[in-house]
Structure formats: structure tokens, C-alpha cells
Design a protein that fits this description.
Elements lengths: L1 E9 L2 E6 L5 E5 L6 H11 L15 E8 L4 H8 L10 E8 L4 E5 L2 E3 L1 H11 E4 L5 H4 L1 H12 L2 H24 L3 H19 L7 H13 L1 H17 L6 H13 L9 H29 L4 H22 L3 H19 L1 H47 L6 E13 L2 E10 L7 E2 H4 L2 H14 L8 E5 L7 H14 L4 E5 L3 H4 L4 E10 L2 E8 L2 H13 L5 H12 L4
Parallel strand pairs: 3-13, 3-14, 8-12, 12-13
Antiparallel strand pairs: 1-2, 1-4, 4-5, 5-6, 6-7, 9-10, 10-11, 14-15
Length: 559
């Protein structure tokens, strides 16, 4: 349920905290006091748009937050399926909007997307204005309502899995059954690409090796020049004065001193080791120089490398930025060609699988349709009965379950809420035939009929009394009180008949603070409730009779 609501910098609200009770809470106040701003704030928190002019003048940001507590296991499960963690059955939701139009959404202190915020809000709060029938206009929402009432969750999950698999295989079958001309064009293109790449006999990482070899061959003169210098210094000097020679002379000299200076023995060993190391280095330099510069076919080798690199470059322009990408393209093309060549066999197999899935889908859909029709009849009866109680005795209402044109993700059914407000009129969808006052009562009747089924723990009604008389308002209030036994109910109202039935009565007032209008909220005690109820009844000048009527309304709640 909604434990607390905090609003900052929205229109006439500078800072406001609202704490409804777990049962039936009403909010009343004079026109312009800020009741509609509170509803706009809740709408904004639940993911709807907030116009820039609602940000309080002079402020950079507006913020709304709400704490929800005592969440049910089903609410927690549904919320956590959206990737949101619930701790100790509590959830904090916050949304801010800056004057540049940017909004930030947070749940449990963590930034989330607007879609996540909206999805979570729909699980926690059902908000209804006097003309708000969006939840009834959505085919999916209507289906979900009836499925919840029919306890269809297991069959719905079974059908949804079958439908997803069936749809996927139908898409695969459609791809297999492309026109023969299109398949031939695709086959020709793939065969050309495969031949074009395969003829080059590419090897992974081949290009890097070729580039390295080309650099060595192109630098052959430089390599020859400096390897000659190195080799002359090491052992090809005409005068015989080479590095190994000089090290050898040093070793001979040191060896003659070892008897007199024994500690020179290790140094002599190092000199001998250096001579052998220098010989090895000279040999390797000579080999490398021979590989790069030796032989008359160096130019031919370079030409061959250049030709190979050009072949790779042409393939890269068509199939990828590297040899490895070209080879990956080749593998993909070969797989696609195989799929085309085996498409007839694959199509036959898919057709068999689709037929088997359709049989199972039909069975699941048949169960859904049967249970939906049974639940629809009962829900329709309850709603009609409630509407009759709410001074719409001649209304006809039904929940129609009719076959859909094709299987859909929710089954084979279309579910419509139909209404005929006057005798002799044809049944039509709600939005086409009901006035604002009638829609409010229909919404209340639907919520009462589905209170235990839709699982939403907080119901908010904005001016549900619009367009209805005092007697009907009283009955609406009694139904709201009844609904509050299974869900938290908040109602913004101008009706004394409704307000007097609440468990908690909150009064919204507007005053001038430091030269600016500010909205405030206060919980009324018994005397305060009597005074506010009498004000709604009598306006400016409240009579004793109206005060007594207010007392009677509050104390005689079952009338």
C-alpha cells in the first residue's frame, strides 16, 4: 500500500507530505486549493508526462517520491521479474523533472528507465480520473483482468510459451518458402562469394606475416649494409682485429694471472663465455643477412608478396576489414547456402513441428476460452449488479468473449466490455456510449468486481462524484468503503456523501506564505470532519441543520 507521498515544487505545492490510511482516505478542499496538483503529482510519479508550467515558479526542479509498504508476495514477485529488488516488502519510488525537461527515475535509490518506473507503478497503483478508461480500452488489460479473475496464470504461461515457439517456427518456415526465383538469386550470389574467397586459399593472420616479410625485403639494402658492418666488427675484419679476437687476447692475459690472483678465474670464464656468445651472434647475423639479401630471387619474392597482398586487399574491400573477417564471411555464406540447399527438407520438418504445436496451442486456447467465458459471465453479472446499486438500474453490461481473427499472444479470444446505458440501445464499447459520470461508476463497479483479482493494492479515484446526485454519491461512497476492505482506497471528492464515509479525511488548503501561495494538508479530527462536511454541504454560510446533517452522515455510515 501507499505509506507516504512527498511532493516538492509543483505548482502551488512547495513541500507537502501525504500519509493515507490503509483503508478509505478522502481528500477535500476548495477549488484551486491543490487537489488536482496532488493527482498530477501521482500521475507523474507513475510515469506520465508533466508539463513544464507545473514546476513551481522560480524553482529548477520538481520532485515526487512515494514509499510503498506491506507489498504482497504476488506484487513482490511481479516487481522482481522486472529486475527490481524489493527489500522487507518495501519499495521507494522517486521521480524528478528539471526545468529543461529532463526527468530522472529511481526505484529503491537506483536509477531506472521510465518504462521500468511505469511498469512498477502499474503493479502498485490504479489511478482513475472521471474520464480515465485507458485500462478498459486496452485489449491486453481487459484480457489480463479476466484471466486474473479466472485464475488462469498456469494455462496462460503454457499457452504463451507454445505461441512464442509456434510464431518463431512460422517465421522460419516463411524464410524457407521464399520464391524460387529469389532463392536462385541468393544461391548464385552465395556461390560466387564462396568461390571468390575460397580461390584465394586464405590463412588466418596471413596478412600480418606478408606485411612483415615485405618490410624485410624492401629494407634489404639497409640490412645488407649494417649486417656487413656488424660482421666485420665481429669476425670478418681483414686485419683480423675482431671482437672475438680481442676478447680472446684478454682471456689469455687474465689466465696468466690466475695463479697469482685466484679471484680472476671467474672473470676469465666470463670472457671465454663472451667469446663463444659473440661467435654465435655473428653466425646468426650472417644467416639472417643471407635469408633477406641472399639470392637473385629477392625481387621475385617481393613481387609475389605484393601480388598476394593486392588479392587480400580486393577481398577486404568486399567481405571484411581483415583476413579473419573474410574467413568469417565465408563460413556464414557457406551456412546460408546449405540452408537454401536443404530448405525443402527443413520446410517439411518445420511444417510437422508447427502442426504439432498448433494442436497443443488449440488445447491450451480452448481451456483459456472456456475459463474466460465462465469468469466473464460472473464478472459481468457483478458489474451490472453494482451499476444497478449505483442508480443505473436500466443499464446493460456484459463482458464479451469472441473469437479473434487469428491466434494472438493472449490466446484466440477478443475480450470487450460492452455497455448499453438506456433501454433499446445496442451494446457498445464503454468509451462510445457512457457519459463522464457513468464512466466513473463503471470504473468503480469494475474495480469492485475485480478487487481481489487484479492484485493492485492501492486504488485512487479523482472526483468520481462528477455528474452524479447526492443519493448516488452516497452509494458510490459505500462502494468505495466496501472496496477499501480488500485494497487501499484514496478519493479526491467534492461530495459530502462520499467524504463522510472515509476512515481518514484529509483537507487540502491554500494560504499565502511570504507573499506566495502554498498548499498544505491536514488530517481532520471529528470536529474538523463535521466542519468540512458541513462546508461542502452549505458553502460559505453553514447552517445548524447542515452541521447536524454532517454529524449524521459521519456517524451513520451504513445509510
Amino acid at each position: 500500500m501507499l505509506q507516504s507521498l512527498h511532493i516538492e515544487n509543483l505548482a502551488v505545492i512547495k513541500r507537502l507530505d501525504l500519509e493515507p490510511c490503509s483503508g478509505f482516505t478522502v481528500l477535500t478542499g476548495e477549488t484551486g486549493a491543490g487537489k488536482s496538483v496532488i493527482i498530477d503529482s501521482i500521475s507523474f510519479l507513475l510515469g506520465r508526462k508533466l508539463t513544464r508550467d507545473l514546476i513551481r515558479s522560480g524553482e529548477k526542479t520538481a520532485m515526487v517520491s512515494a514509499l510503498f509498504t506491506e507489498l504482497s508476495p504476488s506484487e513482490i514477485s511481479s516487481i522482481e521479474e522486472l529486475g527490481i529488488t524489493v527489500t522487507d516488502g518495501e519499495l521507494m519510488i522517486e521521480r524528478t523533472r528539471s526545468d529543461d525537461g529532463k526527468t530522472v527515475c529511481r526505484i529503491g535509490g537506483r536509477a531506472v528507465t521510465k518504462q521500468q518506473l511505469t511498469s512498477v507503478g502499474e503493479l502498485l497503483v490504479s489511478l482513475h480520473g472521471q474520464n480515465d478508461t485507458r485500462s478498459l480500452e486496452s485489449p491486453e488489460a481487459r484480457t489480463n483482468m479476466i484471466d486474473s479473475a479466472a485464475h488462469n496464470s498456469a494455462v496462460v504461461s503454457e499457452y504463451a510459451e507454445l505461441y512464442e515457439n509456434w510464431s518463431q517456427k512460422n517465421s522460419e518456415l516463411a524464410a524457407c518458402r521464399k520464391s524460387e526465383a529469389e532463392k536462385e538469386r541468393m544461391r548464385d550470389m552465395l556461390e560466387y562469394q564462396i568461390k571468390d574467397i575460397s580461390s584465394a586459399s586464405l590463412r588466418a593472420d596471413e596478412e600480418e606475416a606478408l606485411l612483415s616479410e615485405r618490410t624485410r625485403l624492401q629494407s634489404s639494402e639497409k640490412i645488407k649494409k649494417y649486417t656487413d658492418v656488424a660482421l666485420k666488427a665481429l669476425y670478418m675484419n681483414e686485419k683480423g682485429i675482431t671482437a672475438p679476437f680481442l676478447v680472446s687476447r684478454a682471456s689469455d692475459a687474465v689466465s696468466r694471472l690466475i695463479t697469482a690472483v685466484p679471484e680472476l678465474a671467474p672473470l676469465n670464464e666470463r670472457l671465454i663465455s663472451c667469446k663463444y656468445e659473440l661467435d654465435d651472434i655473428a653466425s646468426e647475423i650472417e644467416n639472417i643477412a643471407g635469408e633477406v639479401t641472399g639470392g637473385p630471387d629477392a625481387d621475385a619474392k617481393l613481387d609475389k608478396i605484393e601480388s598476394r597482398l593486392e588479392t587480400i586487399s580486393k577481398l577486404k574491400r568486399k567481405y571484411g576489414s581483415s583476413v579473419n573477417e573474410i574467413l568469417a564471411f565465408l563460413a556464414d555464406a557457406e551456412e546460408k547456402l546449405y540452408e537454401i540447399d536443404s530448405s525443402d527438407e527443413r520446410a517439411k520438418l518445420l511444417t510437422e513441428e508447427i502442426a504439432a504445436l498448433r494442436v497443443r496451442m488449440d488445447n491450451a486456447a480452448e481451456k483459456l476460452t472456456a475459463s474466460r467465458k465462465e469468469a466473464a459471465a460472473e464478472i459481468g453479472r457483478r458489474i451490472k449488479e453494482t451499476l444497478g446499486y449505483l442508480e443505473m438500474p436500466k443499464v446493460e453490461f456484459s463482458v464479451a468473449v469472441t473469437p479473434a481473427e487469428a491466434p494472438g499472444k493472449n490466446g484466440y479470444d477478443n475480450i470487450d466490455f460492452l455497455l448499453s446505458a438506456n433501454p433499446g440501445e445496442a451494446m457498445k464499447p464503454l468509451s462510445e456510449c457512457a457519459s463522464g459520470g457513468e464512466l466513473s461508476r463503471v470504473m468503480l463497479a469494475v474495480k469492485c468486481a475485480l478487487a481481489d483479482a487484479d492484485g493492485i493494492s492501492t486504488l485512487i479515484f479523482d472526483e468520481i462524484d462528477t455528474g452524479i446526485s447526492g443519493r448516488t454519491s452516497r452509494k458510490v461512497g459505500l462502494k468505495l468503503a466496501e472496496a477499501s476492505k480488500s485494497a487501499q482506497v484514496l478519493c479526491v471528492t467534492h461530495s459530502a456523501q462520499i467524504a463522510s464515509l472515509a476512515d481518514v479525511h484529509l483537507r487540502i488548503t491554500k494560504s499565502v506564505v511570504d507573499g506566495r501561495s502554498e498548499t498544505s494538508i491536514s488530517a481532520l479530527d471529528f470536529d474538523g470532519r463535521v466542519a468540512e462536511t458541513a462546508r461542502i454541504l452549505g458553502g460559505i454560510n453553514v447552517s445548524d441543520a447542515q452541521r447536524q446533517a454532517a454529524v449524521d452522515m459521519i456517524t451513520k455510515r451504513d445509510e
